[in-house]
Design a protein that fits this description.
Length: 546
């Protein structure tokens, strides 16, 4: 394995171009950029960076940003080591954007995955009985039709809070990034007059609507009554399915994304937009009447708990989306009266399923409205971006993420990406090129410029993750089954090491090294809808730039 870590996909001609060299040397070293024909086309001296806390390595930076001519098969050589090959040129990220979004069709529940649309991934419809699912004894005495939606991750559960943040991010990309309204995703609905991305998102939105109980509250999740083993294809799942109790967090997730969806879908389907907005209003009112219905942390049989006992951020987020869609004073008041509206919401990571205040802030900053103090909202986003940019520039691997105590979170790759989203929004607000370059350089980490010199995206780069935790992309366990499709993001380093494989193989790991590409390492190597959503968002930005 080379000691020169590069973005194995490549570098945009007009963007930054840096690599990281692992070496014992403390003085600058000579580097050379070699083209596909073996000719030296650039050379220079490395910049020593000392010991990188996130990996424990002594590292140097190689900056070859002066090379703008396009080509393939480039390599970097320094200190006797040679990098993996890479490309320099325009248009590098459009294929990754497309594949990152095509991932969601393969996560669909309740529908046949057509072989002609996804060669090698066709399978029968799974969980058709989700059209008539009973509540658990502690969740109610009725049954609901909760068919459809996306399987959340490597299991076959469907979770409203993970679905909510993933839908929000995809809709946010559609609303604020260019080039997504005509992106072809090869879906069963393609050609129906609605952009393919919205067709895909609607599959999940319809499921979220079905999770709304007669009271207006929303069930937190639904899944098998007991965990199934690996591999288990969805249509062969023997476990009965069950609805878990309603929660305030899930209810506010529906309120937020249904309101957001209402304004975006109105151009294409006014009746559907009306239905979404009515559901959002009902959910917001129901959550206000039931503000502390929390998902229990011990609810771990057959599905993850996704527990969250602080829903101030979800109230803020839902109010923001309802206000941006309706312009109504009551929702503006809820936004302005929230203690989070003037708080610093940009911590070590900007947002995820359990921390949604920054999602509200980003939409309030970008979406036109008459909200008082909108300049302050925009300034807060820029301040958050400045913080992440400073972290990235100080990091020898250009990672816009520095968790306290170097304790990397579960799903750290998504947190890196969500911090890059903030940088991209700051670029939208200011036009400053430093934010743009930060996003592009931040992507390098995920695509090979990291301590493991591994691309965390299946099918992209020379060395990439391909054994993500999944019950149906389980080639590692059953060679007749496929690896995850191209464009699937692995969760990434996680200092918690919650699974037995990680505990056995990674004990004592430092930061970036707390990862293993093994299907049984669900705490470092799972795939999820809300990790591929930020991958799609950020690559949509990079595709615009490129």
């Amino acid at each position: 394995m080379s000691a020169v870590a590069v973005n194995q996909v490549g570098y945009l001609s007009s963007g930054p171009k840096r690599a990281t060299l692992v070496t014992d040397a403390v003085e600058p070293l000579t580097w050379q950029l070699v083209d596909g024909a073996g000719e030296i086309v650039a050379e220079g001296r490395t910049r020593p960076r000392g010991t990188d806390v996130s990996s424990g390595q002594n590292v140097h930076t190689i900056d070859f940003g002066g090379r703008r001519q396009a080509g393939a098969g480039f390599t970097l050589t320094a200190d006797g080591a040679t990098s993996r090959p890479f490309t320099i040129g325009p248009g590098l990220y459009r294929p990754l954007l497309t594949d990152a979004l095509k991932f969601f069709y393969c996560q669909r529940s309740g529908i046949e995955i057509r072989e002609d649309l996804r060669p090698g991934y066709g399978r029968p419809a799974g969980h058709l009985t989700d059209s008539d699912v009973p509540c658990a004894p502690d969740a109610g005495d009725y049954r609901l039709d909760v068919r459809g939606g996306w399987y959340d991750a490597g299991d076959q559960g469907k979770y409203v809070v993970n679905g909510g943040i993933a839908v929000w991010q995809l809709l946010h990309a559609f609303e604020h990034r260019r080039g997504l309204d005509d992106l072809a995703l090869d879906l069963p609905e393609s050609g129906n007059g609605v952009p393919d991305l919205l067709n895909e998102v609607r599959w999940e939105l319809d499921f979220l609507l079905r999770m709304q109980a007669p009271t207006g509250m929303v069930h937190h999740k639904m899944h098998d009554s007991a965990w199934t083993g690996l591999p288990t294809l969805p249509h062969l799942d023997p476990q009965p399915r069950v609805l878990r109790p309603v929660s305030t967090a899930a209810t506010l997730n529906l309120a937020a994304v249904a309101a957001q969806g209402a304004r975006i879908f109105r151009k294409y389907d006014a009746d559907y937009a009306d239905r979404l907005l009515a559901a959002a209003r009902t959910a917001f009112t129901a959550a206000g009447d039931n503000p502390i219905r929390y998902a229990p942390v011990e609810d771990t049989i057959g599905g993850g708990p996704y527990d969250d006992d602080d829903v101030r951020d979800e109230f803020y987020w839902a109010a923001a989306e309802l206000y941006l869609t309706t312009g109504e004073q009551r929702y503006a008041d809820a936004v302005l009266e929230s203690p989070l509206h003037t708080a610093d919401v940009f911590g070590p990571y900007a947002f995820d399923w359990a921390a949604t205040a920054a999602a509200a802030r980003l939409d309030l900053a970008l979406t036109p409205s008459a909200l008082p103090g909108r300049d302050d909202v925009r300034a807060s986003v820029i301040a958050g971006a400045d913080r992440y940019l400073a972290v990235l520039r100080a990091h020898p691997y250009a990672v816009a993420y520095a968790p306290p105590g170097n304790q990397w979170h579960w799903g750290s790759n998504s947190m890196v990406l969500n911090n890059l989203v903030v940088l991209a929004v700051a670029h939208d607000l200011t036009g400053e090129p430093g934010y743009r370059d930060g996003v592009l350089e931040g992507l390098d980490y995920l695509l090979g410029r990291n301590a493991l010199r591994l691309s965390y995206v299946t099918g992209y780069g020379t060395d990439y993750a391909e054994n993500q935790h999944s019950r149906w992309y389980a080639h590692q366990l059953d060679p007749s089954l496929p690896h995850p499709p191209r464009g699937t993001l692995a969760g990434g380093p996680n200092s918690g090491l919650q699974d037995e494989v990680a505990q056995a193989r990674l004990a004592g790991c430092v930061g970036q090294f707390c990862y293993v590409d093994d299907i049984e390492s669900w705490s470092t190597n799972e795939l999820t809808i809300n990790w591929n959503a930020p991958l799609a968002w950020v690559t949509a930005f990079a595709a615009e730039i490129g």
